[in-house]
Amino acid sequence: MFNHGGERVVFLGDIVPTPHHLNLVAISAFDSSPEKTLEQKRDLLTQAEQQGWLLVFSHGNDTKAGYLERRGEMGYLRPVDL
Predict the structure, then answer these.
(1) Which of 2, 13, 23, 66 is deepest in the core (most CB within 10 A)?
(2) Backbone angles phi, psi at 51, to 5 degrees
(3) CB burial class (10 A; 0-12, 13-18, 19+) of residue 8?
(4) Tell me: the pLDDT tens digits for 25-66?
(5) Sheet holding 74-80: strands in order across?
(6) Short-list 49, 51, 46, 58, CA closest to 78
(7) Which range of residues forms the domain containing residue 75?
């Protein structure tokens, strides 16, 4: 996590490696502490949405980065080019 030009940029590593892992229950089968990961992931994504962080995915193929936004009850990733 770092700031660049007044913007918070977060590299999500293996907690959220792709946009498909934004779903809270999408946790790697290799995770040794899935309950802890779920809690950390929930907190991280809540802050990201509320504070408008730029999220960067470690294994994103088509989508490398984006902003998490809310549309009604659903979360939505607004992709951006890096």
Answers:
(1) 66
(2) -105, 0
(3) middle
(4) 888 888 899 999 999 999 999 999 999 999 999 988 889 999
(5) 2-4, 7-11, 54-56, 65-71, 74-80
(6) 49
(7) 2-80
